[in-house]
Structure formats: structure tokens, C-alpha cells
Amino acid sequence: MRFMRTLPTTGSKRGTVPLRPLELTGASGWRLAAEAAGESGWPPVLLLHGGGQTRHAWAGTARQLAGAGYFAIALDARGHGDSQWAPDGDYSADALVADLAAVRASLRASPVLVGASMGGLTSLLAVGEGPPDFARALVLVDVATRLEPDGVARVLDFMRAHTGGFANLEEAAEAVSAYNPHRKARNTTGLRKNLRQHNDGRWYWHWDPRFLDHATRSRAGEALVRQKRREAAARRIRIPTLLVRGGSSDVLSPEGAHELQQLVPHAERFDVEDAGHMVAGDRNDVFSNAVIEFLRRKLPAGG
């Protein structure tokens, strides 16, 4: 694997699989931050987060994948977390796909793509519009060809409402809890990884607000990628595919999930009860186990 640089291993709790910080190269030499778990010779699984999230959203899943014999790599998309922010503000779907293609080219083997929301749309395009061997399997997390406009609008409204930052971490936790009842209020431990305190003393999300310039909204529930393009890409998917939907999601409805399965007839589906759009964060163990069970049937593990 041709990583730019391997950094010291981060600390981990006793009995857990350690996460190793990495730096990868995206399109045009963009610096992309990542963390890996497992052995590099095992089947690679790329974990792509949603808009406004970071690689830390996948920490639990990455460790469980490594424990099951897969080489998990959680990636910060451009403009998110510790990855390079685009000077020209280009966070279009094409730019995200180009970054993914650059990372894919550095791997020893064709990977499994696990993409949530924005990461799922990126993966859908990369597989549907790319070469047949771009990926060995695809897992879409609460995203499909048809999205619910009210749910998409609620996500974008939440992101736009807090670009001015928070007075403290407790205020941020309350905002997250109000948006997502599945998360407990005042739980600030994980927020420290997704927020940064600036010189003015306020805490800001660790992603470039210009990303929102590419997040469109319409009555078709479009965000980043037009629905016709999503549908065209889906029709060309031939690799094993799993759609994981949050049982309480307002972004992907049961009807939207069914439409994807009509476009990708071989796609399997798993609904996670008591989970919203942020499926992996709401019910991480249930989500991770569903992905691992799917992969074990489709792609033998290493180790």
C-alpha cells in the first residue's frame, strides 16, 4: 500500500483494536487524513463518512471490522476533519469521486466501499460510473437513488444553523440531541473530535462551511448529486451490494429503499431499528454486525 506517511499509533482502551493514523493522497495531490485498523494484507474496507462528519464516526466499526479480519480504513473527505480544505472551495461530487479514485489506486487490492450519506453517494458514483473492478462490494448507509426532501432539508438546515459555532461543548451537545433524539444530550466526549475551539473561544464544526455551496435542495430530495445521475449509476452496479437503512430515518424511506432494490435487483437490505439517518452512530454494534455478516458471505476475511 503506497501511503504518503504512517503516523504513530493512537492510544486505545485495553482490549480494543488500535487505530493507526495515516495520510493518503487524493486527486491533484490533496492531503487526506485517515485511520486504519487491522493488517494491510487483509481485504481492505474503505469507510466514507457523511457530510459534516469526520473519520471518527467510524471508529467503532473500524475496530470491529479489524477484529473480523478486514483492513479497515476510515477516511476524512476533503474539507472535513484533518484532511486538506480546498482553496477553491471545490467540494462537488466529481471532486469527491476523484479523491476516492486516487485512494483506490494506492491499494493493493480492490476494496469494499462503505459509504454513509455523502460517502454513500460518492461510492455509488465511483462504482456505477467507474471500471468494473473499482470495488469488490458496496455498502450504502441510509442513502439511495431517491431521498426524502424534508429529511434532506432538515440535515442541511442543521448544518447551516451552526456555522457560527457554539459557546461551549454542552451547547453543541444540546443542538445535536435536539436534531437527533437517539443521541444523549451533554455527551461531549465524542464532540471534541468533531469540533475545534478558535481564538474567539467558540467551538466550530471541523469542516469547511463552503461544502454547503454544493449541497443543493429540491423537492426531489437532491443533495450533491442529481437523482437521474444516481439512478443511472445504480443501474450499472454489478458487485455485491448491501443497503443499510435507519429504521427511523427521515432521509431514506422504505419506498426509497425499495426503488434502489428495483434498480439493483441483487442488492440486499438491512433495516436498523431505533436508528435515524446517522445509523452507525445510533446503533453501532447492530450496524457493524450486519456489515460483517454480509462481508463474510461475499468476501472471505484475512487473518
TrEMBL record:
Task: Kindly provide the name given to this protein in its UniProt entry.
Answer: Alpha/beta fold hydrolase
Q: Name one Pfam family in it.
A: Abhydrolase_1
Cite the InterPro entries for this sequence.
AB_hydrolase_1, AB_hydrolase_fold, Carboxylesterase_BioH, Epox_hydrolase-like
Against SUPFAM superfamilies, the record matches this protein to: alpha/beta-Hydrolases
GO molecular function annotations of the record: hydrolase activity
Q: What Gene3D superfamilies does the entry give? A: alpha/beta hydrolase
What region holds the AB hydrolase-1 domain?
43-279
Question: What is the top-level taxon of the source organism?
Answer: Bacteria
Name the keywords, alphabetized.
Answer: Hydrolase
